[in-house]
Design goal:
70% helix, three-stranded antiparallel beta sheet, mainly alpha
Length: 221
């Protein structure tokens, strides 16, 4: 900053790009940022020393308000987009919460998941080859409202739905195989338990018959 606790044009642009990229990538984002700035208390636009251009000045207290309002606006959009994704993908409440826990385990501090994280997540189920990473990158950009190579939770819901329904990377087949294997294990366990229970009943029956024979023998003695 300028050393006076004030951010100038260059610093503001760098902060917007690094921490609020949505405000720099399209006209809608830029207009929204202009609106937020215009409503900041004490916001002013000063002339440069040469008088050739206008220079924005942002004090630290204004910066904090700006960040809070921007993140609040982004959260509101996320809520709306999440509800749309749930409806379009026909997810149940339990499914959404399960996906949310998976997503939260991989996101960064900004609430976003980038391509390397997503590849690492999917690799737990099936290997992702280099050419498949390219397909994933294209899909992420298509789902992102700003065509960025990151997903927030609403886009993550749509991405998972797309990957499974389109059987990308054979993930759907793998999931079916896993479910089938789990079902088989449960059936084997059930059969084993039934057999064990039957064996115990047979032992009890045999023990009862032996006891009856001993009892009759004792009476004769």
């Amino acid at each position: 900053n300028s050393g006076k606790g004030i951010l100038g044009d260059a610093e503001m642009r760098r902060i917007f790009k690094d921490y609020m990229p949505e405000s720099t990538l399209n006209m809608q984002g830029k207009e929204e940022m202009k609106h937020i700035l215009s409503e900041l208390p004490g916001w002013k636009k000063e002339a440069s020393k040469s008088g050739a251009a206008a220079v924005h000045q942002l004090e630290f207290s204004q910066f904090l308000i700006l960040m809070r309002r921007f993140y609040d606006s982004r959260d509101e959009k996320d809520i709306f987009r999440e509800q749309e994704a749930i409806k379009d993908c026909d997810y149940g409440t339990d499914e959404v919460e399960a996906f949310r826990q998976v997503f939260l385990g991989c996101v960064d501090s900004s609430g976003e998941m980038d391509l390397p994280c997503l590849v690492q997540l999917l690799a737990k189920l099936i290997p992702i080859r280099e050419n498949e990473e390219w397909q994933l990158r294209v899909l992420i950009k298509e789902l992102s409202p700003e065509s960025r190579e990151v997903v927030r939770f609403p886009q993550f819901l749509r991405l998972v739905h797309h990957v499974i329904t389109k059987n990308m990377f054979g993930l759907s087949t793998t999931a079916e195989q896993v479910v089938g294997a789990q079902r088989m294990v449960r059936e084997v366990q059930r059969t084993t338990n039934v057999a064990a229970e039957s064996g115990r009943m047979q032992q009890l029956k045999s023990s009862g018959q032996d006891a009856k024979r001993l009892f009759r023998r004792g009476r004769r003695i």
